[in-house]
Design a protein that fits this description.
Elements: H1 53-56, H2 91-101, E1 114-123, E2 141-150, E3 165-173, E4 176-183, H3 196-203, H4 219-227, H5 232-239, E5 253-254, E6 259-262, E7 268-277, H6 286-295, H7 299-309, E8 315-324, E9 330-331, E10 334-335, E11 351-360, H8 366-370, E12 383-385, H9 389-405, H10 487-495, H11 498-513, H12 518-529, H13 533-543, E13 577-581, H14 588-600, E14 604-609, E15 614-615, E16 622-623, E17 626-627, E18 638-641, H15 649-660, E19 665-667, E20 687-688, H16 693-704
Parallel strand pairs: 13-14, 13-18, 14-17, 18-19, 19-20
Antiparallel strand pairs: 1-2, 1-11, 2-3, 3-4, 5-7, 6-7, 6-12, 7-8, 8-11, 9-10, 15-16
Helix pairs in contact: 3-4, 4-12, 5-10, 11-13, 12-13, 14-16
Bound molecules: protoporphyrin IX containing FE.
């Protein structure tokens, strides 16, 4: 109430007197006036605080309107009599239908199909010599959210399309959000962002019939890449096994573009980011991928979620290739600003700097996986961009597209995008503003809000490395060092093993074989001659084309990079799936022994039987997870056939596909007879017969560590 001491003065300026000069040191805002208060802090669903996840979820047991009024009936609209017309006054009906009508948001223009998980990144501290980024200092632990995606398909497209995969990680660091927005290939189709709409228009379904979905096997894609030869290296990766990963957990990730790092002493270096999966890099076979897309279009997202649920947490080491920040931004003759080039690990080894573990599945797909917004310009102190013209365009594109996709400029306030450090950006208002800002002076300089917010002086401030810009003229032109489009395509080819090369050539034959225009096939085959004569001849023969007469010769001085091959070594088998076929005639001990051996190494046994229900009696009975009609070989990495199974078409198909797809197969007891009909030899590589159930299962697990029985591919 106004009084003599505190008279009512309309427009009383502030709760404290502002300083005469612009304030120079950080201090709190002057504060709200006594008559002011924002809304009581309430979660989107009416709870008092947003401390926990349950407060963000729906509240209470009763069905309510969006305003919290309890509803007695949601099954009948309000009508003029049971058979009469619906009344306009039925607010519940209109609110329910209206909200439903607006449930969809635009899908991403690229990378629309995705799956994601939460996790933690633990720094080894080994990067502190090259960057001052806080999350890469010793023992730093940072929460992360990683989204994997395909590029071309729409949101409902199948998971195992032949495509590049996105691998985007949001680090919620104490210095702000850092997004590492990479792919599972180290190179890109184009050298300049200006071409991005072109490559995407070419790869997307044809604009007339909108087919094919999520595929590059069509005319417009091959028309573009055969004419635009800077795409050649990426196209080689796209035709390789890397484009059909066995699992999102078994993919490498690459930042692709070169970044500039700065350490505490102000020294800079040029760096490429790598993710190395603990489970190794493994792929599907093409026939397997095609079957999988029909049998389980959600194969990759199911695999990721199942593995996390089973406790087989996927892990990747973050690695850095560190190159000197030289004036020409080139390393060993390779232009670091050209995103169609990689740096072979044999020339610049990858140093491990930390471990990413994904250990939590999202609670709600839309709120998290769909609404997350990555941006290669979300940087932290110690990490800066380079002049790579692709990266420069990306810096514009993501924010721009997210404005439309997420409906306005405030999407960084969505729970999944919120930084985990103080934000005082002076941005105000706009669609879907959820912050309740205080003060009157979202501008600088000001004295009315105490000069807040203050610019950081040095520590924890974002950096713009004062990189000299060469004397130049304004022009639309690429550096001459970007002209070589073939030698690294050849490098990739030479780095692959025989079976990988065979798969790659077969992929070209398949994809070009799907093009209607022979000119396009001929043009691409001519390009292949500049990569490798043998590859060109194999593909031409497969397509029934003449080998082109060309003066273009493959580069002579290319050295292979064995690190690019994915067939070598032995890898953890955790999270792999083993199909165990049994029947009511199988002794229950056999089932128990195999399941235990499989489970002991973190793999998932799935019991298959002719019918559903349980096998065995009483306490030892085991639930049947797949029946003959719900299973298909592509779901399993290996198959164990228990005793007591009768021959059937379903089992023949299972075994012959598993054999053709180079999967280990083990038999117990009399199950050897099942191999006769599909014509499989007991001595074939990767076939384990004749021992007890535990012994053959262990042999099968040991074989699985090499991913597939590669020796069988030679047969
Ligand atoms: C090095 C090359 C590139 C890589 C590694 C890359 C990677 C990615 C990834 C991983 C995503 C999915 C992010 C998510 O999960 O939400 C994405 C989305 C996207 N990318 Fe790129 N991209 C590259 C080049 C470009 C270029 C050159 C442009 C445009 C000039 C571009 C525009 C977009 C757009 C518009 C989205 C959708 C973003 C959204 O709606 O949230 N990308 N990119």
């Amino acid at each position: 109430m106004p009084s003599e001491e505190n008279p009512f003065i309309p427009g009383k300026p502030a709760s404290a007197t502002p300083e005469f000069e612009e304030p120079q040191c950080p201090q709190g805002p002057l504060g709200s006036k006594p008559d002011q208060s924002g809304p009581r802090p309430t979660t989107p669903t009416g709870a008092d605080s947003a401390d926990g996840q349950t407060e963000q979820a729906q509240q209470g047991e009763y069905h309510t309107t969006a305003q919290g009024g309890r509803l007695p009936d949601t099954n009948h609209s309000l009508k003029a009599g049971a058979r009469g017309p619906v009344l306009l006054q039925d607010h519940h009906l209109r609110e329910k239908i209206t909200h439903f009508d607006h449930e969809r948001i635009p899908e991403r223009v690229v990378h629309a199909r995705g799956a994601a998980a939460h996790g933690t990144f633990v720094s080894y501290g080994t990067a502190s010599t090259v960057t001052k980024a806080g999350f890469l200092q010793p023992e730093a632990e940072t929460e992360v959210f990683t989204r994997f995606s395909t590029v071309v398909g729409s949101r409902g497209s199948p998971d195992v399309a032949r495509d590049t995969r996105g691998f985007a990680t949001k680090f919620y660091t104490s210095e702000g959000v850092f997004d590492l927005v990479g792919n599972n290939f180290p190179v890109f189709f184009i050298q300049d962002a200006m071409k991005f709409p072109d490559i995407v228009h070419a790869a997307k379904p044809h604009p007339d019939r909108e087919i094919p979905q999520a595929q590059s096997a069509h005319d417009t894609f091959w028309d573009f890449v055969s004419l635009h030869t800077e795409a050649t290296h990426h196209t080689m990766w796209q035709m390789s096994d890397r484009a059909i990963p066995r699992s999102l957990r078994m993919m490498e990730g690459f930042g692709v573009n070169t970044f500039r790092l700065e350490n505490a002493a102000g020294e800079t270096s040029l760096v490429k980011f790598h993710w190395k999966p603990e489970n190794g890099v493994h792929s599907l076979l093409w026939e397997e991928a095609q079957l999988t897309n029909g049998f389980d279009p959600d194969f990759h997202r199911r695999d990721l979620a199942d593995a996390i649920e089973a406790g087989a947490y996927p892990r990747w080491e973050l690695g850095l290739q560190v190159m000197p920040d030289s004036e020409d931004e080139t390393f060993e003759g390779i232009d670091l600003l050209d995103p169609t080039k990689l740096i072979p690990e044999e020339l610049a080894p990858v140093t491990s700097v930390g471990m990413l573990t994904l250990d939590r599945n999202p609670e709600n797909y839309f709120a998290e996986t769909e609404q997350v917004a990555f941006h290669p310009g979300h940087l932290v102190p110690g990490i800066d961009v380079t002049n790579d013209p692709l990266l420069q365009g990306r810096l514009f594109s993501y924010l721009d597209t997210q404005m439309t996709r997420l409906g306005g400029p405030n999407f960084s306030e969505l729970p999944i995008n919120r930084p985990r450090c103080p934000v005082n950006d002076m941005f105000r208002d706009g669609m879907h503003q959820t912050a309740v800002h205080q003060g009157v002076a979202p501008y600088k300089p000001n004295s009315l809000d105490g000069g807040n917010p203050f610019s950081s002086k040095g520590e924890h401030a974002l950096i713009d490395v004062p990189q000299p810009v060469a004397e130049s003229v304004k022009e639309r032109r690429a550096s001459a060092s970007f002209d070589d489009h073939f030698s690294q395509a050849r490098l990739f080819w030479l780095s692959l093993t025989g079976i990988e090369r065979q798969h790659l050539a077969e992929a070209f034959i398949f994809e070009l074989g799907k093009c209607y225009e022979e000119t396009i096939r001929q043009r691409e085959v001519k390009n292949l001659a500049a990569i490798d004569r043998g590859l060109c001849e194999t593909v031409a023969e497969g397509l029934g084309l003449d080998v082109p007469q060309t003066t273009e010769q493959p580069a002579a001085d290319v050295t292979a990079s064995p690190a690019l091959s994915q067939i070598s070594g032995r890898w953890p088998v955790a999270g792999r799936k083993v199909g165990l076929v049994a029947s009511a005639n199988t002794p229950i001990e056999q089932i128990t022994v195999v399941r235990k051996a499989v489970g002991d190494v973190g793999m998932v046994p799935l019991l298959i039987a002719p019918r559903g229900g349980r096998l065995g009696e009483g306490n030892t009975a085991v639930a049947v997870e797949r029946t003959y009609s719900t299973m298909r070989s592509v779901e399993f990495d290996a198959v164990v056939l228990a005793g007591g199974i009768e021959t059937s078409t379903a089992i023949d198909v299972l075994i012959s596909e598993a054999w053709r797809h180079l999967k280990p197969i083990a038999t117990c007891d009399d199950a050897e007879h099942l191999l006769e009909e599909p014509g499989i030899g007991l001595d074939d590589p990767g076939i384990f017969c004749g021992g007890g159930p535990e012994e053959v299962t262990k042999q099968l697990i040991a074989a699985l560590a090499e991913h597939r029985t590669w020796a069988r591919a030679e047969m």
